[in-house]
Structure to design on (83 residues):
């Protein structure tokens, strides 16, 4: 889970899905997919989080492997500002 200090809470905002491309938040991305936005992505299988720049590849299977039945699927959990 992404953490922040209380003092930094003023720099965080809640996304309004209808205003900020809500489908970005609903979609699951496969290993190696291009990240649709700058931000933090969480693996649905194990909970590990990574940061990724927009258009950069999310961790590929050989970079993030599971030794169990859980699939690697990335979900955007925090979108950061960026060009
Ligand atoms: Zn994982």
């Amino acid at each position: 889970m992404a953490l922040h200090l209380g003092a930094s809470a003023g720099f965080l905002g809640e996304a309004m899905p209808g205003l900020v491309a809500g489908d970005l938040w609903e979609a699951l991305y496969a290993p190696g997919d291009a990240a649709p936005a700058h931000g933090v992505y969480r693996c649905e299988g194990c909970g590990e989080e990574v940061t990724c720049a927009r258009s950069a590849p999310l961790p590929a299977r050989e970079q993030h492997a599971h030794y169990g039945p859980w699939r690697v699927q990335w979900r955007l959990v925090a979108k950061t500002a960026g060009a």
In short: Residues 41 and 77 are 6 Å apart (CA to CA).
